[in-house]
Amino acid sequence: MISVESLSKRYGEIKAVNDLTFEIKKGEVVGFLGPNGAGKTTTMQIITGFIKPSEGRALIDGVDVTVSPITVKERIGYLPENTPLYDDLSVFDFLSFVASVRKLNGKRDQAIKETSERCGITEVLDRPIGTLSKGYRQRVGLAQAILHDPPILILDEPTSGLDPIQIGEIRELIRELGREKTVLLSTHILPEVEQTCNRVIVINRGSIVADSQIENLKAELSGGSIRVQYKGSTPPDKFRSFGRIEDVVEDEGVWSFRITPKEPTMDIREEIFIFCKERDIVLLEMYREKRSLEEIFKELTLEGDSR
Ligand code: ATP
Prior knowledge:
With 307 residues, this protein is an alpha/beta fold. The chain has helices at residues 40-47, 69-75, 91-101, 108-119, 134-146, 164-178, 190-196, 214-221, 269-278, 293-300; strands at residues 2-11, 14-24, 29-33, 55-60, 63-64, 76-79, 152-156, 182-187, 199-204, 207-213, 226-231, 243-251, 254-261, 282-288. Strand 9 and strand 10 form a beta hairpin. Adenosine-5'-triphosphate is lined by residues 11, 14, 16, 34, 36-42, 81, 188, 307.
C-alpha cells in the first residue's frame, strides 16, 4: 500500500532522510519511532506529496506521489505536526471548508455528521476552533484527515502536547481507525507504539535502525542473553562455547555472569542446563535477560538527539 524506495532528502548539508526503504501493507498500523530530528516528519511529508525527495521515491498503491499528487492525496488522510486549524472558524465551518476542498459536494453534511460522531466532536460543532482544548483541537485535526474516508492515514505525532486523559482518548480513536485503515503514525513515545501499533519502524539520523513486529522486537533486539549463577571453584571460561561471556562476578564461591549466544534469537537455556548437569556444576540460577522497549530504543538511538 505504501512503498518507500531508497528515499533521501537533503537540506543543504543536512541529510534529513538517508536511503530509507520500507513497505507498509494494507491494514497494518505502523509506528514510526525516533528521537527529535530523526527524519520522521520529512519522510511523512514526502509520502503525502508535500515535499519532494532528493533521491528515491514513495508510492501509494503503486502510484509515485510526485507523478500523481492529487490521486495520492485522495487516498491519504494526513494529520500534520501542530495541526494547522483556522481558529476563527467554527468546527462545522472548518469541516465544510475541508469538504469543499475534498470535493465532497452532495455528501458533505453526511460526511461531517459521521466523522464528528466518530471523533466525538458533535457537541462542539458550533464552537470557534480557537476556544477548544488541545484534546478537542486534535480531534478536529483527525476529523479533517478522515472526512473523505481515505484508506490510508498518516499521523505526525498525534498525541503531542496532550494531557494523559486526552492522550488515552486519541489513542483509542486511532486504535479504532486502525481496524479498517492502514496507519503510519510518528512518535517519540514508546508506549504509544506498544499500545497502538502492530509494527514499529525505528529511525535514527535519517536511517532505519529497526523494523519489526512489536511482539518480536524485544526478542530480536534483546540479544537473547542469559544470566547464569553457579557454585564452583573455577571461573566460567568453560561456558565459552555457548557465546560471549560478560559481567563475571565472584562472591564466596558463587559465580554470576551473562552469556550472549552467537545467534541472538536462540534460546540456549536447555543446553546450558544439560551442560551443567553432565559436569556436576551446581546451577543456582538461570534466566533470559529481559529488556524494556525503552532500553532497546535508547540503545538504538544512542547518538540520536544531537541536531
Ligand atoms: P521531530 O520529532 O523533532 O519532529 P523528526 O524526526 O520529525 O523530528 P524532521 O523534522 O524530519 O525530524 O527533521 C530531520 C532533520 O532535517 C532535522 O535535522 C531538521 O532540523 C532538518 N530539517 C527539517 N526540515 C528542514 C528544512 N525545511 N530546512 C532545513 N532543515 C530541515
